[in-house]
Specification:
The chain is mostly helical. 62% of the residues lie in helices and 0% in strands. This is Small ribosomal subunit protein bS21.
């Protein structure tokens, strides 16, 4: 598992407080930058390890998607959707 800092690249993310800037404005700007960069989302995603999906599960999922797709096409043709 990579540390979050390595995801940001060489430079990382830096938010400096401007001269005379109120603390609440600075915190708002900082939190907005963090959300836009996706750091928090990535950290939450990496909190728990997920196992890779088995071949059987992938196959069953694909079959289910195809079945649903056909059902929707049939419903459209019948004028239900």
């Amino acid at each position: 598992m990579q540390p979050i800092a390595s995801l940001l690249g060489k430079n990382g993310m830096e938010v400096k407080r401007r001269e005379g800037e109120p603390t609440n404005v600075f915190l708002y700007r900082f939190s907005k930058k963090v959300q836009q960069s996706g750091i928090l989302r990535e950290a939450k995603k990496r909190k728990f390890r997920t196992r890779p999906e088995s071949k059987l599960k992938k196959k069953l999922s694909a079959l289910h998607r195809e079945k649903k797709k056909k059902e929707m096409a049939k419903a459209r043709k019948m004028g239900r959707v």
